[in-house]
Specification:
This protein is α/β, with parallel strands linked by helices and about 600 residues long. The chain contains 23 helices and 10 strands. Helix 3 packs antiparallel against helix 14 and helix 18 packs across helix 20. The radius of gyration is 37 Å and the shape is elongated. The chain starts with a helix and ends with a helix.
Length: about 600
């Protein structure tokens, strides 16, 4: 999964590889100056060197011979002091080039880190937008937020943050080992014997780290879920004096997360000391082995070359350490990646038709034909055998006790869910065969709990309508009885209404919601108990706005207060998922059935 996010940035990977190769070359050249500098400072060598033709150079001894020859020639011409100065300058220049390449190789990887994280968050967000509403009734919001924030951040820190190491360090290790082999294959072979031991230790600890990281991230999701619940239910918590109880619950979750994170961090902290210890042991063994070679007669390597070998060997230890850190970090990031994939790989049951039928408006009727539905995992039918026709231009009211299936029925029309049995048609076309966007474009929703956004009044009314003008928004607000209270605000239509419209009263929020539906101007209007939560005065004002909105539209109204739907063309009475009664208000009262019972209870 991560590979597809890195793929668009492969050009940066190529630049990193090239710069890392140059850094190895410059580093080797800079350290190669150590040998002649040591010879000159400590007069370790009085041998006279002759130039070996470059085509005849086949070993490190031949290469070092020619290096010493040129140094001796330069010394003979300009003196030892100037030669030493030149060697030191060369060392500095090579080091500048090396560090510049190091910086460049890291800098070109930054767009990958930032780009991968941005693309991943965008994909998660788009996936959340595409998933059906039913998915979110089974998942905790805090858990989803934790995956988008904490888990993505962990992927950035643990995986994309180590991409640089995963590219740079193998190049450095291979390059330095090639130089070590060229200097002395015997000592290099002896050194390589210890590398598998180091990798085995790191891999074993890394696997354990991944298991603990999954548990720690799950606890982080629980923490975010409780924070989200607390913010949403703060009024109830305070009213029922439950601060101490909620605080204790939060303390238990955070304590468990602290314990788990402590174990994870402790294992991560092992990376440096373990690699440091193994590296020191390696250097000590090489010192002993190389020293025995130098002390022999006709030694295959001299003291300056041995020091050069040790310097290069020490240079290769740091990349191995960094690689070991990556071995710790990647399992932790992969644990977060697994949690992210659970969202990205979630199957969306609401499928777009492969070859959608055109839906160019609403001309005839909506039909329910033998519709049955049950929520996943519930084991109970919410709707059963629903047969219903809603002609164009008619107002249909749906009433019934809580849990009768009223909201579920209207949620099936815009395909928030799909039916288990039967079908729903618009103008004779099965809604599963038409484009979802075309279907939902026909409908406007006004809910009992107005869903508003932390934005200006203008943007909330114009939400979903491209290119809406101020004149259109004002006209919609006037129809919704909202214009007067909006103009009383200091900033008018540019007033920010806060999170979920918390700066407005219930009636004001509902009128903004109605104005949004007016501006969309849909042929089908769905009202889900739009006035149920309002006081008498607010209900009167909102009902006036709804009456204007419902004029000349096909309206499906879920009603809690039966007095608001007396004028409906037809009233559908749902009871335990079935249509118990249907007809006009007066006819249903005259029958003396379930509807009259509901009406009499409200009249008490």
């Amino acid at each position: 999964m991560l590979r597809q996010y890195v793929a668009p940035y492969t050009k940066y990977l190529g630049g990193s590889v090239l710069l890392n190769l140059f850094s190895v070359i410059f580093n080797v050249f800079s350290f190669s100056m150590i040998m002649p500098i040591l010879n000159m400072l400590f007069s370790l060598d009085d041998q006279v060197y002759t130039l070996i033709p470059w085509e005849s150079v086949h070993s490190s001894r031949d290469l070092i011979n020619n290096l010493y020859y040129y140094v001796a020639q330069f010394t003979g011409t300009y003196g030892a002091s100037r030669t030493l100065l030149l060697l030191c300058l060369f060392l500095c220049v090579m080091t500048v080039f090396k560090t510049a390449c190091y910086f460049g190789s890291t800098a070109v990887m930054i767009p990958i880190r930032t780009g991968v994280v941005k693309d991943m968050r965008l994909d998660i967000y788009n996936k959340i937008l595409s998933l059906p509403i039913g998915y979110f009734s089974q998942e905790k919001k805090g858990d989803i937020i934790a995956r988008m924030s904490g888990d993505v951040q962990e992927v950035e820190n643990s995986i994309t943050g180590t991409l640089d190491m995963l590219i740079k360090n193998p190049i450095l290790i291979i390059g330095y080992f090639a130089v070590l082999l060229f200097i002395s294959w015997q000592m290099t072979l002896f050194t390589v014997l210890f590398a598998p031991v180091m990798l085995w230790i790191m891999g074993k600890i890394g696997r354990k780290l991944k298991e603990q990281s999954l548990e720690a991230q799950a606890l982080w999701s629980d923490t975010m879920s409780q924070v989200e619940e607390t913010l949403g239910g703060l009024r109830v918590i305070k009213a029922f004096l439950a601060e101490r109880r909620m605080g204790g619950r939060f303390d238990r979750i955070t304590e468990a997360m602290k314990v788990k994170n402590t174990r994870v961090a402790t294992r991560q902290a092992l990376a440096h000391p373990v690699s440091e210890c193994l590296g020191t042991i390696m250097i000590a063994i090489v010192l002993w082995f190389g020293g025995t070679l130098i002390l022999k007669d006709n030694a295959p390597i001299d003291a300056p070359t041995f020091i050069f070998f040790l310097v290069i060997l020490y240079s290769v230890i740091q990349p191995i350490k960094d690689l070991s850190k990556a071995a710790y970090g990647i399992p932790k990031g992969m644990a977060s990646m697994e949690r992210i994939n659970r969202i990205l790989d979630t199957d969306n049951p609401i499928k777009e038709a492969a070859d959608p039928v055109a839906l160019d408006g609403f001309h005839d009727s909506i039909r329910f034909e033998g519709v049955g539905f049950s929520y996943e995992g519930s084991g109970r039918k919410v709707l059963d055998g629903i047969d219903l026709e809603i002609p164009k231009g008619r107002t249909i009211a749906i009433v019934g006790a809580s849990g009768a299936g009223k909201t579920t029925l209207v949620d099936l029309i815009p395909r928030f869910y799909d039916t288990d049995e039967g079908r729903i048609t618009v103008d004779g076309k099965d809604i599963r065969d038409v484009r979802i966007r075309d279907l939902r474009a026909l409908m406007g929703n006004v809910n009992q709990d107005p869903i508003l956004f932390n934005d200006t009044i203008f943007n909330n009314i114009a939400f979903g309508v491209e290119g809406a003008t101020m004149e259109q928004v004002v006209e919609a607000a006037k129809i919704a009885n909202a214009h007067d209270f909006i103009m009383e605000k200091e900033q008018g239509y540019d007033t920010n209404i806060g999170d979920r419209g918390c700066k407005l009263s219930g009636g004001q929020r509902q009128r903004i919601s109605i104005a949004r539906a007016v501006l969309k101007n849909p042929p089908i209007l769905i009202l889900d108990e739009a006035t149920a939560a309002l006081d008498t005065e607010s209900e009167r004002i909102v009902q006036e706005a709804l009456d204007r909105l419902m004029a000349s539209r096909t309206t499906i109204a879920i009603a809690h207060r039966l007095s608001t739907i007396k004028a409906a063309d037809e009233i559908i009475v749902l009871h335990e998922g079935r249509i118990a009664e249907r007809g006009r208000h007066e006819d249903l009262l005259a029958r003396g059935g379930y509807y009259k019972k509901l009406n009499d209870m409200q009249a008490l």
